[in-house]
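Side project, low priority. Logging it here so it doesn't get lost.
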Amino acid sequence: MLLLWLLLLLPLLAVLWQQKPSWLILLRHQVAWRVLAWEAACQQRKLQQSTLRAGQSQQQALLWCLKRAQSPCCLPRGITDMSTFRNQLPLTKTSQVQEEESKEQLLPPSSPQYHGEASLQATLLGLVTLNKVYPEVLSPGSSACVTPTSPWLGSVPWLRHALGRVSPLGAKDTRTLLLEALMSSGLRALEAWTAVELLDVFVGLEADGKELAEAIASGKLGTPLPSRAAELQEALEQGPRGVMALNLWPEQPQGSYLLPPGIPFIELLPFKEGTQEEATSTLLLTDVQRKEEYELVLTDHASLTRCRLGDVVQVVGAYNQCPVVRFTRRLGQTLSVRGEVTDENTFSVALAQAVGQWPGAKLLDYACVESGILDSCDGSAPHYEVFMELRGLRNLSEENRDKLDHCLQEVSPHYKSLRHRGSVGPVKIHLVGPGSFRVLREALAACPSSSFPPEMPRVLRLSHLAQLLWKRVIS
C-alpha cells in the first residue's frame, strides 16, 4: 500500500519541485526502482509459471489471438484449438504477408505491435537484468531516448522522469535528440523505439562523431562545452564497448534468448542445412531438441497468419519447458552464382577474418550483390560484389582486397572448388562513403511492401538498391 501511495505521489512531487533538486531526483529514482523491482518480481513469477506449463500457456495464447483477431473473416470455420489451427492454416513467408498486407494497409506480424502484459514483462525483466549486470548504465541521468517515439509503455510514462532520463521527449529529429543527450557528462546508455533505429544512431555516431563534438564545443544548442566535446572525442577514438542487445543473460559472450509461451504464438520449423526438401510440420516449444536448428514461425492477432520469418535459431538450452536459442542465420540471405550456397553466417565469418587483417580498419556495415544483378561480369566469370562502409581506411590495396576471397575459400570448400576450376571469379570489394547504408535503409523503408522497421538485407536482389550503393562508391 505504501508503494502505491508513493507511486501516486510521484507526478505531484515532480510538479511541486520543478527546480528538480538533487535530493528529489535521487529520491524519485530510488522509489521508482523499488516499484520496478516489486513489479519485476511479480512478472518473474508469472514467467516462471508460464514456462513450467508451456504447452498450456501456448494454448491460452492461441485462444487469445483467435478471440481478438482483427481479420476473423479469413479464418476457416471450426478453429477452436491448437491442433486444428496448425492443420488448417498454411504456412506463409514474410514476403507474402507483406505483399498482402500492403494492399490492406495493415502492419506485418513482425511489427512492434505487442503491448500490454507481454511488453510490460519484457521491459521490466530486461531493465532489472541490465541493472544487475551493468548498474552504472541505469543510474540517475545516465540514459537518453534518441528517437521521437519512446520505447516505454504509454501506461507508465512517469518512469521516464523518475529514472532520470537525460532528454525530454518531443517532436524532434534523431540527430537533435542525440546531440542534446551527448552534452551530458553522465550519459551511459541510449534508448530507441526499434533496434534498427538504434543501430543507425550508433553507426551515425561513429561516422559523424567529430562533427557532433565540434557542435558541442561551439555551443550549437546553447552553452559551449569544449571539455565535454574533448571527452566525447576521446571516447569515440576508443571505439564502441558494451551491450548492443538485451536478453536475460547479457553477461554471456554470445546472445541467448528465451522463447516465451505467450503472444505472439511461436512455432518452430525444423531446418537442415543443405537439404532440398523443406519440413512442412512445425513443432511447439516443448517439442524441440537441443543443438538442433529451427526456423521461427509467428502468429499474432492482427492477421492470424502463420508467418515464416526466415530467422533460423539453434536451441542451446532450456528455461523450464521453454527453449533458449541463439540466432544463427537468415534464410534468403544467401549468395549463389554457380549453384553454390554461401549463407549469411559463412560469409560474415570470412569477412570478419579478412577485416581483421586490414590494419586500422573497422567494419561499420556491408551488403553483397551477385554480379548478374549489377551486370558487371564483362566477360569474366560470375562473382560476388561486396559494398562496405569502413572506419579507419578509405582505400584498400589489391593485396588486402584479395584476402576476403582467400578467407571465403577457407570457410567454404564448395566455393574453393568453384574458384579453383574458374567457374566463379574472385570477390570484388567496393568501399562506400559515410551514411551510405542509412540512405539504403531509407530507400527500403520507402518501399510500399516493406516491413516496419525495414529489414536490412545482406544480399541485395533489386537492381535499383544495388545501384544506390554503386553511386556512393569512393574506392
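Brief comment: The radius of gyration is 25 Å.
Revisit when time allows.
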